[in-house]
Design brief:
By secondary structure, this protein is an alpha/beta fold. It folds into two domains: 4-98 and 239-276, 3-Layer(aba) Sandwich (Rossmann fold), CATH 3.40.50.10860; 113-236, 3-Layer(aba) Sandwich (Rossmann fold), CATH 3.40.50. Helix content is 39%, strand content 19%. The protein has helices at residues 18-28, 45-52, 77-82, 100-110, 126-137, 149-162, 202-205, 222-229, 238-253, 259-276; strands at residues 4-10, 33-39, 57-60, 74-75, 87-89, 95-97, 118-122, 141-146, 167-172, 182-185, 210-213, 233-235. The strands form two sheets. Strands 2-1-3-5-6-4 form a six-stranded mixed beta sheet. Strands 9-8-7-10-11-12 form a six-stranded parallel beta sheet, with helices on both faces. Helix 4 packs across helix 9 and helix 9 packs across helix 10. The radius of gyration is 18 Å and the shape is globular. The two termini are 36 Å apart.
């Protein structure tokens, strides 16, 4: 059997851990797959579709999660609901999926963090869409905090139109106040190389019982460190990154993995990240 070709696309994408994680997942499942990185600028996406269509499948990161949609034949239910795609399976049809929700929910479970009650999501970009929709489906009471009040209000309105029973409010990050069961950072604030920044004040953080930071580089952001110092449970983005990759392989090959193997992969990915950076 010939080795199939897969890739991750995005721009910029030099920092990605995807090849390490996906190659390991192919090995664990005894599947043949060659996984590479394709840096595709926004204006190049259309002309690069002939290359992408030759692949067996590919993953998508910023800034293509929404702009890829017109080039696909079909979306699965959650990708259509969120208006976001991070995994494509090529075949007789080109089908788009979002595995970010799987990664997020399993990362919370991995960290022993319950997903209920009052949840604040900081940011309103592509990552925030996943967290807001999942919080709405879970019946959480949502506060969406962002630098742009217009974008936050627009996303909040969109979610309530699609999931009418949602309880959601939006505000500026600087105006954020209240008691929260979970704070989710969906911004790049604190990400390598600007690692000394945090998305919210110490005052806000002191009122958050649990924290999830989608950033995985560094493994422990200042936000995570401060949350732990407060006695809060806190989880970084590496486990989400690995679990959403697992979901992609379930789509491509119906692969099955043991929890022990994935926990080991999360640890190994953390070690690899430290070596790379």
């Amino acid at each position: 059997m010939s080795t199939r070709k897969f890739a991750v696309i995005g721009h910029p994408i030099g920092h990605t851990m995807s090849p390490f994680i996906h190659q390991r997942l192919f090995e664990l499942a005894d599947e043949k797959g060659n996984y590479t990185v394709l840096d595709i600028a926004p204006q190049e996406l259309s002309e690069k579709m002939n290359v992408l269509n030759e692949l067996s499948g590919y993953n998508i990161t910023i800034p293509h999660k929404q702009t890829i949609i017109p080039f696909l034949d079909r979306l699965d239910k959650k990708a259509a609901l969120y208006g976001s795609v991070n995994t494509v399976r090529n075949g007789t049809v080109r089908e788009g999926f979002t595995t970010d929700p799987d990664g997020f929910l399993k990362a919370l479970a991995y960290g022993g963090i319950p997903f209920r009650g009052n949840v604040v999501i900081v940011g309103c970009g592509g990552a925030a869409r996943t967290f807001v929709y999942e919080a709405a489906l879970a019946g959480c009471c949502i506060t969406l905090a962002a630098r742009s009040p217009g974008k936050a209000a627009s996303l909040a309105k969109e979610v309530t139109q699609k999931i009418p029973q949602t309880t959601i409010q939006s505000c500026l990050i600087d105006d954020l106040q209240g008691e929260f069961d979970l704070l989710v950072n969906a911004t790049p604030v604190g990400m390598y190389p600007k690692t000394d920044t945090v998305p919210v004040s110490d005052r806000v953080l002191s009122h958050c019982r649990n924290v999830f930071d989608a950033i995985y580089n560094p493994l422990e952001t200042v936000l995570i460190q401060k949350a732990q110092a407060n006695g809060s449970a806190a989880v970084g983005g590496m486990s989400m990154l690995v679990w959403q990759a697992v979901a992609a392989h379930e789509i491509w090959d119906s692969s099955v993995y043991s929890a022990d193997d994935i926990n080991q992969l999360i640890e190994d990915s953390a070690k690899e990240l430290k070596k790379k950076f």
